[in-house]
Amino acid sequence: MICGAGVTVRAQDSASQDVKNAGTDTKDAAKDTSHATKTATKKVYHATKSGTHTAYDKTKEGTHVAADRTKEGAQTAGDKTKEALSGRPSVKARDDAHRSATKARDKQSETDQKVQDETTPH
What we know:
Blueprint: H1 2-86, H2 91-119
């Protein structure tokens, strides 16, 4: 029986050690999980912070562009209103009229040159 009692003691020691090891493994796993959660949280925080700054910068940039375009549009509209109220033709209308007149003169000059070339003996 002595042999039997010794085996029982070893079995109890072994079972006790298994429980301790299981507790240690659980504790280590909890630490690893905690560490992983902490690391992931930091990464998400920094990515969100970076994304927020980027979105802020893009919004700010877009707002400035929109404001500039609105300002330019308002100035153009104001200039056109002044031209319309002044009774003078707009710059574009004057340019178009000049372009048409020049085109007509050039076409007439070409026609005159062709006629002159045909009538002049070579």
